[in-house]
Amino acid sequence: MEFTYTIKEKEKYALITLSGNLIEKNQANDLMDEINNMADKDATNFVIELSDFKYMNSTGLNVLLGILSKARKSGGEAVICAVPEKIKSLLVITKLVNVFSVVDTEDHAAKALNN
Fold first, then answer.
1. In CATH, what number is assigned to the domain containing residue 33?
2. pLDDT band (50, 70, 90) for residue 40
3. Residues of the domain holding 70
4. How far out from the chain centre does Cα 19 lie?
């Protein structure tokens, strides 16, 4: 399954929805370019929604970390929500659940950003 993404700008954050498989570095180049442009324009909070995300390897983990570090360097935060079990276990194994806020829904993510 091909990797796709959408970005919707909300009032206090940008919602990034990832779908498919993220296994090759160049698959996320456009996404990271958009994230960089948004951070340069003061979009500092991101909610990363993964309900349709099927598979990722270290490339996908690096993309998530890239979004988080860009948000934090800009004074914001990134929260992951709607994580499928397969992806959640990968986040646990890599201990990224200790680095990211991982919540169940976009509403929970929005509340986590407000704290």
1. 3.30.750.24
2. confident
3. 4-114
4. 11
